[in-house]
Each structure stands twice: as structure tokens, then as C-alpha cells.
Amino acid sequence: CTLVTPPLERRRDKWLLHCYKGLKRLEEKLEGFSVEGLFQDEAFVTAFVRASRVAVADHQKEKLKALRNAVLNSASSIDLDENRQLMFLGLIDRMTELHLRVLVFLSNPRKPLREMGVGDEGGTGKRSLRPHLLKYCSIPEHDPHDLRMAIADLQSSWLVLDDVYGEKASVAFL
What letter would DSSP give residue 95? Predict the structure, then answer.
């Protein structure tokens, strides 16, 4: 127990501080927003605790960033459907950084393509996205199995629509 406790406490403390800083920034930006008042909202507390459980159990930076964004969106969105929010947190829990990279790529392929030095002709309708997606996700072209599994997961969750390996792919957001 003494071996496990310090790393868990370190993760928890880092997560709480990261969220607190984000919430304080929201408090500065949004009129009438109060961090203290936020923790009186049972729906927010539920979302925060669920996100925190996942965050303490994970080390992947992109996943932690997605969880923090979910917490901050929950805090700043008054009309956010509670069920949809909890479903989204459950999806983040099941995802890996690979899943998140696929979503980032497909949500706006032009941006990662530009970052990779590929012009507009690569993946915006004239050629397949597949080789670029493999490169963006750091997956060898000869072994795309992990990418296929991640895409299948995202499609079964209705987050990715259409044929990812073909010309047309899109991301559906909750």
C-alpha cells in the first residue's frame, strides 16, 4: 500500500490543481460564475467525480486533456444534458490516445495535414486519408490493425461516420 499511495496522490493532486486552475479561469471570464457555487450543483459534482476517477487511473496526456475539457465544458454549459454528459465521460474512459488522435484528425483533416506538410490535395477528396491518418497516428502502414480497431470502436459509438479509409469521413459530436 505504501508503494501505491504516493503515485496515486501525486496524480490526484496534479489533476485537482489542473482542474482548479481551469475553473478559476472560467470564473474570471464568465460573469456570475463561481467555483464555490459550482460545487453545489449535484450534476456537476457527479461529472467531476467521474472524470476524476478516470484521470487518477490514467497517465495519457491527451486523455487527461479530454477529461479536463469535459469538466470545464460541464462547468460552463448550463444547458448541457446530464445524460449526454455522462455518456461522453464514459466514452472518454474507454478511449485511448489513439482514439482521440483519430477524432482530432477526422474532425478537421486539413489542420493535421498542414502540420504534416501535406497540401490540400492530400485527403480532402482527391486521395485517401488512410496513409495520412496512419502517419498522424504513428502507425506503420504495414500493420494498421490498431487503427482499424480504434476506428471500429469510434464507429460503434457513433462518433465516426462514413468510410474512414475512403474519401469521405466525418466526426459526429454529441
Answer: -
